[in-house]
Amino acid sequence: MPALTPMGLSIGIMLLANLLPLWGALMGQWSVYELILLYWAENVLIGLYQLARFGAVGWLRDLPEIVVLAAFFTVHYGMFTLVHGMFVVGMFGPSLDAGLEAGVALLLSPDGLLVPLLLLAASHGFSFVVHFLRGGEWRDAGPKELMLAPYGRVVVLHLAILGGGALVVMTGQPVAALVLLVVLKMGVEVVAHRWAHGRALSPPNSPPSAR
After folding, report:
1. pLDDT in tens, 93-146
2. Is 194 helix (H, G, I), strand (E, B) or coil?
3. pTM, whole model, 2 decimals?
4. Residues 143-201 pLDDT 10s
5. Contacts of 115 by beta carbon, 8 Å cutoff, 6+ apart
6. What is the rounded distance in angstroms from the CA atom of residue 183 to the CA atom of residue 179?
7. Cα gap 163→63, rounded to integer Å
């Protein structure tokens, strides 16, 4: 049996993290609002892990000046995700009075979306360790790449999700349409993941903790 590569393992964990939303869609337990709200929260996770990449590059390559760029990214990406979140709640929320605060409360509730959110966080964390730290991506990550990397993935992914979500709403949220939405998201994720981490993973020459 061929050895499982880091790329294959990280994609496998990513797909496993998406199985809970898929199960919820199959069982008719989740609404399109809950699915898209969860995927919006995943954007927030992506931003947080990107800040971790800024920190890793600044520490491992001794570039303290990168803190300024990280601060700019925090403000810019934060505003981007805030506006996106308000749009998601306004377009797909259960009522016109539903606000982003209610959406965040649902995401952080153990009876709501906390468990699938933690699974997605673990998946992104695994990818961060395997590809960026252990795989040595931190050596070649430039300031411009760090600044722009999350946006392409987020825009492509959520154009697909919002389009699929609108289709689900128009068709009355049938189970088949919700499942298709989740599968579409998973497919886009695999392509984006392979594109972002397609370089060969080789062991770093020095431990990630060394400056």
Report:
1. 877 666 889 999 999 999 999 999 999 999 999 999 999 999 999 999 988 889
2. helix
3. 0.84
4. 888 998 888 777 777 777 777 777 777 776 677 777 887 888 888 888 878 877 774 34
5. 20
6. 6
7. 41
As a whole number of angstroms, the distance between CA 167 and CA 188 comes to: 17
Residue with tokens 């991506």: 137
Closest alpha carbon to 28 in 208, 148, 133, 179: 179
Spatial distance between the Cα atoms of 53 and 56, rounded to a whole number of angstroms: 5
- Torsion angles phi and psi, residue 60, rounded to 5: -70, -30
Residue 197 to residue 192: CA distance in whole angstroms = 9
What are the tens digits of pLDDT across the range 54-86? Answer: 999 999 999 888 999 999 999 999 999 998 898
Q: At what angle do helices 175-196 and 6-17 cross, to 10 degrees?
A: 150
Distances (CA, A) of 45 to 85, 93, 110, 128, 201: 13, 21, 18, 12, 23
Q: How many CB atoms lie within 10 A of CB 45?
A: 17
CA–CA distance, 133 with 78 (Å, rounded to integer): 24
Cβ atoms of 181 and 111 closer than 8 Å: no
Q: At residue 151, what are phi and psi to the nearest 5 degrees? A: -70, -45
Rounded distance, CA 186 to CA 183, Å? 5
Q: Which of 47, 190, 74, 52 is nearest to 128 (CA)?
A: 52
